[in-house]
Amino acid sequence: MMRKTAAVALCVLLTLAGTPALRAGGRLEQIDITGFVPSPTAGHLVAKIVGIQWDARTIPVRYSMNTTLNPIPNPLGPAFLSMDAARAALQASFDQWNQIPTSYIDMQITGTTNNVGLAGFDMINELSFRTAAAFNAIAVSPSTSLILDMTLVNGDDIDEDGDSDVSSAITSAADVDGDGDIEFPPGLYKAGTILDNDVQFNTKVSNGLRFTVADADVDVVGRSVDLMCVAVHEFGHSLGLSHTMNNQKSGSDGNGATMFPFIDTGDPAAELGGRSLDIDDIAWSAFVYPEGSAASGVAALQPGDTAFGAEFGLIKGSVRHGLLNQPISAASVLANVHNTGAASVSAYSGTTQVSFNPATGGLSVISAAFNILNGDYTIPVPKGTYEVSVEPIDGFPAAAGNISLAAQIGVVLGQHNFNEEFWSKNQEGVPERRPGDEKTVSVNPGQTRSGIDIVTNDSTLNINNFRARAASGFISPPAGANFTYALRVPASQIGGINPAGEILVTAASFDTNVVDSSVSPRFADAILTTGTVNPDGSINTIALDAPLAHASGFLAQENDFSPFYFQDPKELGQIVRQGVADGSIQNLFLVLRVGPAPYPGVSGQPPLVGFSTATPILGFSYLSLDGGLTFTRQTTRDFRFSLLVSKPGQ
After folding, report:
1. Cis, peptide link before residue 474, omega less than 30° from 0
2. Homologous superfamily of domain range 8-288
3. Is residue 287 within 8 Å of residue 28, measured between CB atoms?
4. pLDDT tens digits, 41-59
5. Where does 308-458 sit in CATH, by number?
């Protein structure tokens, strides 16, 4: 007698194509309604947010290739990619994850299917080049998982197709009856357990891509992409990893972690870089599937394995919103390698829950007190010394919808409106005099460093003479041109800040970007200086040779606001306050100088700045083509540069 179950739900994440100008951090999520606890909303249940993953009894995870499209369709011309070549590339992509010595995940292509429709929940893990007519991303990796702890018994029909999906004849998942779908062994399975995963690649003529596998075929065509680059990313979702905000490894490598949500299909170096895993991806796979965590079975150490604790330690702490005095849901916390600034491993903060309507399946956000249980985070890192920083999920470089349900909770509650900053130990929890200062955290394998608690600065005012970003520019400068961007902050905007006390001029923040995502945006100079303007708003003088603050070779961030932290905010605040009071400072100018060509990357384009075009134009932005000798006031755009000013703490 078969027993039907309905305690399953779908979890979906897409891989999106980036435009040429655009380019794991944790777990994919599911709700857990175990216990059926009533929520504050009548008729609703408390639904905890939990990570999804494969149960050890279901590993190796077996996949079937859909062979009904052979050769693989090419929306740009004649088909050329055989099913055998595609299968080899997909298994090589699985093997990037399988070969992590500290992770016991194992995903194998073991069969075929001839499904002429779309993949769906059928206990067959399908790899398919068929997608729905309305589908418009590069690929998708939806998983179906349990929404409550459940004991499966022999004969259970999980997908309700009339065929048993649980067999007492096995102790690990297998196709017992030879009909193509996978049966699970009986036993208790936790909420979040993955039951089925299907990965689909878009090849439609309307909006699909040409998938290539050879190095020589990787090109700058936006609708052509390396199959392995896409598949390695999607298979990260297959094992349960979420997107990360980590899109720039270092000053010399603009590529991000594999699990960053966008792929630059016009940058061959970015596509080839996406074939292999970053330490962020490796650390999270090992954290979710830690080798050596069991005495027997797939999690036990086998020849060639390395125990998780022999390679990784943990950084633990919490993140709190200084102004709202609330734990933050899904702040992005990053461990940067000390002295190099290279990004290592990231995580998201917070333990969260939602109110679940069992009648409709709807999820509700009620309040920070209900939805956010704490702001805790854990970052698995290899041995090293790190600087820990936090940034909001504010749309740059990715939006909450690209990340997780927890991120959307934080955004709905208005928590992601803070400036990124470093953990500064004793300065946390008070208005920080130097938000750019950082304390280091040293971690050894098997060690947990706790108490790395971050409280966002509660006294900072961003002076923003711009609106929402409309675009990034500029590309293709005239021969010999040297772009220099400047934004004016009139003294009147500073004088009203804490007029009875001191001010700290802490940082400038520049909205920056690149054309090729494998390139890190680096500007020749970042400058804070003074100047005067004429009655018509044009620049009269700008003291580029006598700056108040200056950084040469300024390393910016891709598709994000890039902070330029000033060395002595208190002294700088005193200089500015006195200058405004006695009239010697009429304006401050935030300046980015690009530097002359040539520029790195396949496109050979300079680093970019973000700008707004909403009217009326505010008129505080200026552009120079000669390195800052002459500036033209911008009448159709406002550069997105901010000056950060705060009141000093005690």
Report:
1. yes
2. Collagenase (Catalytic Domain) (3.40.390.10)
3. no
4. 999 999 999 999 999 999 9
5. 2.60.40.1120
